[in-house]
Specification:
Chain B: Belongs to the acylphosphatase family. The complex is a heterodimer of chains A (about 325) and B (about 850). Helix content of chain A is about 30%, strand content about 25%. Chain A has a seven-stranded mixed β-sheet with strand order 8-10-7-11-9-12-13. In chain B, α12 links the parallel β18 and β19. The chains are: A alpha+beta (about 325), B alpha/beta (about 850). Bound molecules: fe (iii) ion (FE), magnesium ion and zinc ion (ZN) (2 copies).
């Protein structure tokens, strides 16, 4: 069965779709009321709110699918602000021709991921548009910053340590392999970063700032951090963790893992004296076994990202302007 | 009758013994008056009976290192001077005097240095007005000792005496010094401790040690070139890949044992600029030089000792020393003592330092003879900061930032353009710092503070980022347009004309990667008339490191399914994972760049022929392809008759094919069928002639050449000619499958491509029968000389870069001229 335009008419087909498919996985106290808005209890903690839209082809890939991605992406953004995720909204845009079984699997996955992440889906929406069997999901998330700690780029200072939570580039390499129909065993790293962040915060690690390393990769994230905090940061090429299979895939394609997207990795900036302990905490988590200390904040007042190369030189890590256009003359 | 004149001379007239020369000349001709240095050059007041002779002799007998750019004469009233004097320098606002490049130690100084009675016996920093350091030690102008890095050395009374004596060879020789008052050498071990009893380290070199030696423009890493173990070790610790090392030979005679040298090459080698010259190695293989010096190559970069320290080092028993720029892989030249000790501690065993600071780091220049001229591969020490003179005046001050690889920038104003020394690749942070440092200090030397800027169109060049941060009117210049205008200006051409630019990479107006371009234009603009057909470059720069991957993508794109299946044996060196990913890229277009690059075409052929499958230095695949072709040819000259005959056949057919096309075009002009339809028919005729028939009707006309093909494009660029290489590449792959000699295939490829290059130019049309060429590909001696030969056969003159490198080292000059033109009309930032 496929999605047809009638599924979006608001009539019977729509009701059936909601009842048979969405309700099956997403039923809870808030959604069951079928009100126009969800009424949420007041909290004593500061609120964190974020939203993100998810577009990915293919919709299912090794290590995940768009449903899992749509939850993890928003949940991770909340955690990066030090906020514990509470409520989620999900808007689905379905293209005509979308396979219903596929949609079923995606919604099931979305529901499962949300439950695991401890976030409640409190509002939802579905629209059908003309198209080619595609699917887009928008989620918005609300969280409480229970720790009361201030986390942000404005508290970064000289000497702070940079830690990444694991291998870079897996999600990007996985999606590209799928799109190029290349058979390999690269999996997306799509995951909920919550457990790792919780461990760090509970252990009292002096976390200055965190960023999940998504679109644009670590290179872009570091540039944002340097710019926002007005600090120079320097990392070491040899300590950047990359899975060997991903590495050789990138080498052939001329891709730089520094600029590749991940969906389950984050950069954590901590006080230097807490770096070692933070690293150990991350490593005890199944998602953080490959965590590495990759560099430090080196200078105030100079927003610049550099990498110390294997040969002992330095290279500027810039924001990508093009797409890795050839430069060798 | 007594006549009085004021003479103003501009050019390189300071620090080259100009005033003593004038002084002596005045005495000889009984001229009275004075001579004076000022920032604008040299000013003379002369009166006497023989003023006319005086002026004539200034021009005729000027000192060897002087360059007179202008000489202005004004009549003045007679002052009745009683003698001729040299007066003191005076400051002036006008700063047009040129600064001399560094000069190899002169014969007179050498004689003194090796004369046991001389007070500078064995003094390693001996120099005079005719020789020694110049540009590399000058901080600012006018050129006086206080403005050089010699400022800290107080002259002893004896040196000062010489310095003040107009008749002495050291009169106003700013870097003059002696053992009492001047710089001194120091030999340290790798931990930085001074060691004694080893002199300047000759015995250490003899034992196979690697020395870091501070020279004129920076440090060299030095070892005995005949000591295989030392050279291999240097290659290993420097992480050098296969990139060749330059060799310093004791003298011309020892050099001649290893390489062959023409008269022009000899005079260049032994001249005051003393560059590295690439020379063909002797074929009778008794070479004593380690094969690790220039692996896989038929040529060797040779230079001769050019500083007193070099001459002292050659008191050792060795005849050849490897002398390679001391830098960490991918980083700029090291020129500071502390930097050297820190950076080279894992590479050099000992350090031969001195306390004369270098202000402008400057690599050795590299030259090669092509045709009957010397061309630059790299322009630096001995040539910088000599300017290029312009036909048209630049009314403002402007900087051309150059390219990404082999960067050199250009400052221009008035009728002069100053190219900086080779800075190097711009990927690294240190290189960017070096670039900015030199951009600043070069302004002091040239007195040009740029108010406008020109930069390359490539969005990811480091120079583009620098341009973005500059707050002045600036202009983006297309890469190959800059190459074209650079070579045209060098040859004094400014009317629009057709040029052929072949290189590895340049960002095109259409966002694709260009590199085999026929552009018609001048500094005001250009039109793209023809180019190599677009082919898929997988993985961009990463792919360009593996020539076989390029070949794989090119052939797969150009071949039918059936043809492709035959090529299986070509790809045994590609892993199944590589092939898998390449196939995926070709299917999906992901990380696949369309390119018309000539450099990648050479790479593809080199890879297919199994000559180079991994590139460890820029241009390696093409350089080795050329080398293999030359080897095949050379063996033919001395050995078997077979190769010689085939070589003659290839040459003959190439010349016949080019002549046949020229005749065909002549005929076509005469019949007046120059409309679009006639043109199409003509191209058909050419493709039949230069391509391959299927054998059933008539035999191939030029079987010794690989086939050529042209096509007129439709939309989106109607009328643009596409140089097609499908049949050429297919036939080469066939030769590989038939296991033909790669040397022969390589040579045929060079001839066939040169033919096709020239033929395409003929099709587009050559006004004045002149064709300028530029781009890194024309640093290929074999290719360029074939092109010169074939052009000569049909009376076409090839204009190739001689004053600047053909590659991106000459780019900034063209950028400046184009931006100047563009910003004239519109004085705002674009
Ligand atoms: Fe170029
Ligand atoms: Mg997000
Ligand atoms: Zn001298
Ligand atoms: Zn002295």
């Amino acid at each position: 069965m496929k999605i047809v335009m009638a599924h979006g008419s608001g009539g019977n087909a729509t009701r059936e779709l909601i009842k048979d498919l969405f309700h099956k996985y997403l039923a809870n106290d808030y959604l069951d009321k079928m009100e126009d808005s969800a009424i949420l209890p007041v909290s004593e903690y500061p609120l964190a709110m974020t939203t993100d839209s998810f577009v990915v082809t293919p919709l299912e890939f090794p290590g995940g699918d768009i449903g899992k991605l749509a939850v993890c992406g928003t949940v991770n953004d909340l955690w990066m602000a030090g906020a514990e995720p509470q409520y989620l909204t999900a808007g689905f845009i379905l293209e005509e021709g979308l396979d219903l079984d596929l949609l079923d699997r995606v919604v099931a996955s979305l529901s499962r991921t949300a439950k695991e992440a401890g976030i409640k889906i409190v509002a939802g929406d579905t629209k059908v548009v003309q198209g080619n069997g595609g699917l887009y999901i928008n989620t918005a998330g609300l969280g409480f910053r229970k720790s009361g700690r201030h986390i942000g780029t404005d508290v970064i200072r000289e000497g702070d340590a940079l830690i990444v939570s694991g291998d870079l580039g897996n999600h990007h390499a996985c999606i590209m392999s799928q799109r190029m129909e290349i058979v390999n065993s690269i999996q997306s790293d799509c995951a909920n970063l919550g457990p790792m962040v919780e461990d760090l915060l509970q252990a009292g690690i002096e976390v200055r700032a965190m960023r999940d390393i998504t679109r644009g990769g670590l290179g872009t994230v570091l540039n944002e951090i340097a710019e926002a905090s007005n600090h120079a940061v320097e990392i070491e090429e040899k300590s950047i963790p990359v899975d060997p299979e991903v590495k050789s895939f990138c080498d052939i394609l001329g891709l730089d893992p520094l600029y590749m997207a991940n969906e389950g990795k984050f950069l954590c900036i901590t006080a230097q004296e807490h770096a070692e302990r933070a690293l150990n905490i991350l490593k005890q988590n199944p998602l953080g076994t490959k965590a590495r200390l990759i560099g430090s904040v080196t200078e105030t007042g100079k927003p610049l990202v550099t990498v110390k190369t294997r040969l002992g030189g330095k290279r500027v890590i810039d924001v990508l302007y093009g797409e890795g256009l050839p430069r060798i003359c | 009758m007594i006549r009085a004149v004021k003479i103003l001379i501009n050019g390189i007239v300071q620090g080259v013994g100009f005033r003593p020369f004038i002084f002596k000349l005045a005495r000889e001709l009984d001229i009275k008056g004075w001579v004076n240095n000022f920032s604008g050059g040299v000013e003379i007041q002369a009166e006497g009976e023989r003023v006319e002779d005086f002026i004539r002799r200034i021009r005729a007998d000027q000192p060897a290192l002087a360059v007179i750019v202008s000489l202005e004469i004004t009549e003045i009233p007679v002052q009745h001077y009683r003698e001729f004097t040299i007066t003191e320098s005076r400051e002036s606002e006008d700063k047009d005097v040129l600064i001399s490049p560094d000069v190899a130690v002169c014969r007179d100084c050498l004689q003194e240095m090796f004369h046991s009675k001389d007070r500078r016996y064995l003094y390693p920093f001996i120099n005079c007005t005719n020789c020694g350091p110049r540009y590399t030690i000058i901080k600012d102008r006018p050129y006086d000792r206080e403005k050089t890095t010699m400022a800290g050395f107080q002259m002893c009374p004896e040196c000062h005496q010489e310095y003040q004596d107009p008749l002495d060879r050291r009169f106003h020789a700013q870097p003059t010094a002696c053992a009492v008052c001047g710089p001194a050498l120091k030999l340290l071990d790798c931990t930085g401790n001074e060691i004694s009893g080893n002199g300047i380290g000759i015995n250490l070199l003899q034992e196979g040690a690697i020395l870091a030696v501070k020279g004129l423009g920076g440090f060299h890493l030095v070892c005995d070139a005949c000591n295989d173990e030392a050279v291999s070790r240097l290659r290993r610790v420097k992480e050098r890949g296969a990139k060749p090392f330059a060799v310093m030979a004791r003298n011309i005679e020892t050099a001649l044992k290893e390489v062959t040298i023409t008269e022009l090459e000899r005079s260049t080698l032994a001249g005051p600029s003393a560059p590295i010259v690439l020379l063909p190695r002797k074929k009778n293989r008794n070479s004593r030089i380690s094969p690790q010096t220039a692996p896989g190559l038929q040529s060797l970069g040779i230079m001769l000792p050019y500083t007193p320290v070099h001459h002292l080092l050659f008191q050792g028993t060795y005849d050849y020393l490897v002398m390679t720029s001391a830098n960490l892989s991918g980083q700029p030249l090291i020129y500071d003592n502390q930097e050297a000790l820190a950076g080279l501690s894992g590479i050099a065993d000992y350090f031969l330092l001195n306390n004369r600071d270098i202000y402008h780091p400057c690599d050795d220049s590299v030259m090669q003879m092509i045709g009957d001229r010397m061309i630059f591969i790299r322009r630096a020490r001995g040539y910088v900061p000599l300017p290029l003179f312009l036909k048209q005046e630049i009314k403002t001050t402007i900087v051309g930032l150059g390219g990404e690889m082999k960067n050199a920038f250009c400052l221009a104003s008035g009728k002069m353009a100053f190219m900086s020394q080779y800075i190097g690749d711009m990927h690294g942070y240190e290189n960017l710092e070096r670039f900015e440092q030199e951009l600043y200090s070069f302004q002091k030397v040239t007195s040009i503070v740029p108010r406008k800027a020109a930069y390359d169109m490539h969005p990811e060049y480091s120079t583009t980022r620098i341009a973005r941060s500059m707050d002045c009117p600036k202009f983006r210049v297309q890469h190959h347009h800059a190459h074209l205008v650079s070579v045209m200006a060098e040859h004094g051409m400014d009317d629009p004309m057709l040029g052929l630019i072949c290189d590895g990479t340049g960002y095109g107006e259409d966002g694709r990667i260009w590199g085999f371009e026929y552009l018609f234009g001048n500094q005001e603009g250009y039109e793209r008339k023809a180019h190599l057909e677009y082919l898929p470059l997988p993985g961009g720069d990463a792919g360009a490191k593996y020539p076989l991957r390029i070949a794989y993508a090119y052939l797969k794109k150009l071949m039918t399914q059936e043809e492709w299946q035959q090529t299986e044996p070509l790809w045994t060196k590609l892993s199944s994972q590589e092939k898998n990913i390449l196939d995926g890229q070709l299917r999906s277009g992901f990380q696949l760049f369309e390119t018309s690059s000539a450099g990648r075409l050479f790479d593809a052929v080199s890879g297919m022929l199994g000559i180079c499958t991994e590139v460890t230095y820029e241009g390696q695949a093409a350089i080795e392809l050329e080398s293999v072709a030359e080897k095949w040819l050379e063996d033919g000259n001395t050995g078997t008759q077979k190769n010689r005959n085939e070589f003659l056949e290839i040459t003959l057919q190439a010349s016949m094919r080019v002549k046949a096309l020229a005749a065909l075009l002549d005929q076509y002009e005469k019949t007046g069928q120059t409309n679009a339809e006639g043109r199409l028919r003509l191209i058909e005729q050419y493709n039949e002639m230069a391509g391959r028939t299927d054998g059933s009707f008539c035999p191939d006309l030029y079987p010794a050449l690989y086939p050529a093909c042209l096509e007129i494009s439709g939309e989106p660029q109607p009328g643009v000619l596409h140089v097609k290489v499908g049949s050429l590449l297919k036939e080469i792959s066939n030769d590989v499958l038939l296991q033909k000699d790669p040397g022969e295939a390589a040579l045929r490829f060079h001839y066939s491509l040169a033919c096709q290059m020239l033929e395409t130019a003929l099709f587009i049309g050559l006004e004045n029968k002149k064709l300028p060429i530029a781009g890194g590909v024309f640093q290929n001696k074999l290719l360029t000389e074939i092109l010169l030969f074939l052009a000569g056969e049909i009376g076409v003159e090839i204009l190739y870069p001689q004053k600047l490198p053909s590659g991106d080292g000459g780019l900034a000059f063209g950028q400046v001229l184009i931006a100047n033109e563009a910003l004239k009309k519109e004085p705002v930032s674009n």
